[in-house]
């Protein structure tokens, strides 16, 4: 009990008490993360982690151990028979608990290693592993599918560990920016009574004795916040799209960062909010993980300066035509057009981001406000980053008479599924607008992953639902 009360750095005293067995020694020492070992040269510490690689040299065994903070070489010598026997049974990816002395070792990359004093196996990994954890970047559909079959193993790689860290920092930065700018966080329901975008591409679910839907977005409930005088709201959570899209950028469930703002004068107020939000998010990621991203991915995170450029749909199509890019749709962009537009705008303006505006109203949701001078144009935008759409936003129609008229023109029944939504506007609602941003797409572009499936913790697609997996046929995935 005297030893337990010792200050954390007096581990050398512990080593003199040989009467303590392995279990007691481990209980006396709190875990030290591998990334902190440089502070403990010459001290006895305890690390817990996973076996990365093993090199058995006969009378000495080198065990590379990793945790979330780093990797270190540990050494077991033949002189301790029981310890050496335990070390001989280790397999790659086994989970172990080690105590030992941190020693300087110039021959090791990090400059130190651990001489093992006690070794306990928490969990022995089976061999062989179902997939290789580290290696060349996977851009092959079949290989990626196999990795997703064993996603919990795949996530152990340095690339994926860092990807999860970056996504976490993005989420924290988004929330903090919204709070700092007067937003209230809402938790919109994911099971809803009416489809929020249209009657198609929704998942129907049985809700007791009635039909319900998985939310395509928190849109209706964000607008409820505007009618509730919350003025600015944000929401982070899953949204669902029942689209049979076998592409590298579509999911049936993804995480959306959503914002809605009241008392705007134009959708460009929303654009400005998102622009500054993204600058903050990228700056936070760069500050915390910029060096690691450069080391692991070979990418310099670029934090934008100044305002993002704007293009109308017509202007974008004109630029694409001049560049020789074929267009089959005057009101939207193919993946090839998006990539080309990103390259053109970065070359012309130096910006990786571009707001595209003046989309045909017929191609947008019925609750988007129309241009008063040209009702065929919607008062909304898409934001593209590095040639990929990451956001859709708009000024919403807040006038109940106009909103009903728009819904009727789309063939919607006012007394049907829209009844609850339309009631939000019956007792006055301020002018407002907002956006939704797919976070997995943002991470994919930031870290240059080949597929959105790689930047999703456990991706759901038309052929993949949690761990209930069916194989994607080679060649189905498209850009």
TrEMBL record:
UniProt-annotated location(s): Cytoplasm
SUPFAM superfamilies linked: Class II aaRS and biotin synthetases (SSF55681), Nucleic acid-binding proteins (SSF50249)
Family statement: Belongs to the class-II aminoacyl-tRNA synthetase family. Type 2 subfamily.
PROSITE patterns to which the protein is assigned, alphabetical: AA_TRNA_LIGASE_II (PS50862)
Key words, A-Z: Aminoacyl-tRNA synthetase, ATP-binding, Cytoplasm, Ligase, Nucleotide-binding, Protein biosynthesis
Pfam family, any one: tRNA-synt_2
Protein name: Aspartyl-tRNA synthetase
InterPro entries membership: Aa-tRNA-synt_II, aa-tRNA-synth_II, aa-tRNA-synth_II/BPL/LPL, Asp-tRNA_synthase_2, Asp/Asn-tRNA-synth_IIb, NA-bd_OB-fold, NA-bd_OB_tRNA
Location of the Aminoacyl-transfer RNA synthetases class-II family profile domain: 168-459
GO biological process, one term: aspartyl-tRNA aminoacylation
Main localization category: cytoplasm
GO molecular function, a single term: RNA binding
Coiled-coil portions: none
Organism: candidate division WS6 bacterium GW2011_GWC2_36_7
GO cellular component, one term: aminoacyl-tRNA synthetase multienzyme complex
């Amino acid at each position: 009990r005297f030893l337990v009360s010792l200050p954390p750095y007096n581990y050398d005293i512990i080593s003199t008490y040989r009467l303590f067995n392995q279990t007691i020694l481990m209980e006396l020492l709190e875990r030290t993360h591998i990334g902190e070992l440089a502070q403990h040269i010459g001290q006895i510490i305890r690390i817990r982690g996973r076996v990365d690689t093993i090199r058995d040299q006969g009378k000495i065994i080198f065990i590379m151990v990793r945790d979330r903070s780093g990797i270190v070489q540990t050494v077991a010598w033949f002189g301790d028979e029981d310890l050496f026997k335990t070390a001989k049974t280790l397999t790659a990816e086994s989970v172990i608990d080690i105590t030992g002395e941190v020693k300087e070792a110039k021959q090791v990359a990090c400059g130190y290693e651990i001489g093992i004093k006690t070794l306990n196996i928490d969990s022995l990994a089976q061999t062989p592993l179902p997939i290789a954890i580290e290696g060349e970047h996977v851009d092959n559909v079949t290989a990626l599918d196999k990795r997703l079959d064993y996603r919990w193993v795949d996530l152990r790689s340095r690339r994926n560990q860092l990807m999860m860290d970056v996504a976490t920092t993005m989420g924290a930065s988004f929330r903090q920016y919204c709070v700092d700018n007067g937003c209230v966080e809402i938790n919109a329901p994911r099971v809803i009574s009416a489809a929020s975008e249209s009657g198609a591409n929704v998942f129907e679910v049985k809700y007791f004795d009635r039909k319900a839907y998985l939310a395509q977005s928190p849109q209706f409930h964000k607008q409820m916040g505007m009618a509730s005088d919350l003025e600015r709201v944000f929401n982070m959570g899953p949204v669902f799209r029942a689209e049979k899209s076998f592409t590298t950028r579509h999911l049936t469930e993804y995480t959306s960062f959503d914002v809605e703002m009241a008392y705007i004068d134009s959708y460009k107020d929303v654009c400005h909010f998102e622009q500054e939000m993204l600058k903050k998010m990228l700056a936070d990621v760069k500050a915390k993980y910029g060096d690691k991203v450069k080391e692991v991915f070979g990418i310099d995170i670029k934090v934008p300066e100044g305002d993002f450029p704007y293009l109308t749909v017509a202007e974008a199509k004109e630029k694409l035509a001049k560049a020789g890019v074929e267009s089959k749709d005057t009101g939207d962009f193919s993946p090839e057009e998006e990539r080309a537009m990103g390259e053109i705008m970065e070359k012309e303006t130096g910006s990786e981001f571009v707001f595209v505006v003046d989309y045909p109203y017929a191609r947008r949701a019925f609750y988007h406000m129309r241009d008063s001078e040209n009702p065929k144009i919607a008062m909304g935008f898409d934001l593209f980053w590095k040639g990929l759409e990451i956001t859709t936003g708009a000024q919403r129609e807040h006038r109940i008479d106009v909103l009903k008229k728009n819904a009727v023109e789309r063939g919607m029944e006012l007394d049907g599924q829209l009844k609850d939504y339309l009631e939000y506007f019956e007792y006055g609602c301020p002018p407002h607008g907002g956006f939704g941003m797919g976070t997995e797409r943002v991470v994919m572009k930031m870290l240059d992953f080949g597929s959105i499936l790689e930047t999703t913790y456990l991706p759901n697609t038309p052929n993949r639902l949690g761990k209930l997996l069916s194989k994607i046929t080679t060649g189905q995935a498209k850009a």
